[in-house]
Every structure is written in structure tokens, then in C-alpha cells.
Amino acid sequence: MTSFEEAETEETVTCLHLTFYHPCQEEKMMFRCLNFCKREQVRADETAKFGRDSSVCRYNLMDTRVSRIQFSLQFFRKLHTSEYCFEIKNLSKKTKLTVNQTELGYLNKIDLPWKCIISFGDYQILAEIQEGESVDYFETHLHLAEAPILQERCLPSLQPIPENGISPSFFLSQGKSPTEIDENEL
Description:
Blueprint: H1 3-6, E1 15-21, H2 25-28, E2 40-43, E3 47-51, E4 59-60, E5 71-77, E6 84-90, E7 97-99, E8 102-104, E9 109-111, E10 115-120, E11 123-130, E12 137-144, H3 168-173
Parallel strand pairs: 1-12, 3-4
Antiparallel strand pairs: 1-11, 2-12, 3-5, 5-6, 6-9, 7-8, 7-10, 10-11
């Protein structure tokens, strides 16, 4: 047997990709203490805390409007499954935290969806979980967004298209409304 055949099987590591955005990031440099260069390992039994207190928080946001400890992420395995997840908890008494459409008050927590937007104040963080198998640690990979993650988008309303393939908006643009015809009249 070769050393390749005898080598231990590599296990994949769960990676939490976090993309940060703030409209004043260029002037205020609130992300200057975050490491955007490489993946960082976090022990599975540690809680990853985000906030402005560098003695408590692993990820520091340099902004006086951010709470000492804004929120935390805890890595865990779901009961009776092999699925690994993250739990997010709001640790700010003053600022509500929003995960997608769910608003979290102080000490509220929820499971982090595999892809979501975390927001508080003017901060927007896109969180994406890349699944892995490691039970000892997970990794974080931080990214910096140059444009807002959350934008008001004017999406056309999704209306069903009838079987004849003609969209109701076609009739509205013609100044007419669709009329119902009995199939016997055709």
C-alpha cells in the first residue's frame, strides 16, 4: 500500500461565509478589524460573538452605534440527525436584529437558515452556510460587499398565465379586460 492509500480520509469543514456591507464603510472603516483575507477556524464549542468590545468579541465592528456584544453564532448538531447548523442570538438590548424577515429582540435566538440576510441598523450581512462533516471546528470566511446586499427591488407581480398563454397584463395594456367565453360558443 502507498502512503496515499494509508492516509486518513480528509473530512470537509462547515464554512460560514459572511459578506458585510455598511453604507459608510469607506469613510468610517468599521470593518477594519475583520480579516477578509483567509478562512479562520473556530472551535465547535466556542461561540462566535460580533460587536465592538474586542475583549469579548471575536469579530469586532468599529462603530459606537454597535452594541458591545451585538449578536452571537453557535455551531451545533441537530438532535437525532447528522446535520450541523448555526444558531443566531441577539445580544443587544438596544437594537433589534433581523434575520431575513424575522425580527429578534434581546436574547431571542433562531436557527440560521442556510442562506439569509442578517441586518441591524445600517449593517447588512449575507450569511451562507457551506456544509461539512467536521465535529471539532468550523470555519468562517469573511467578505466585503461594495454594494448593498438588501435592496428594494421592484419585481413584477407574479400572476398565473392562463392556458391560452396570453398574460392578463396584455389585456390591461390594450385597455380591455379578459372576458370569459363559454367553450360551446367557440
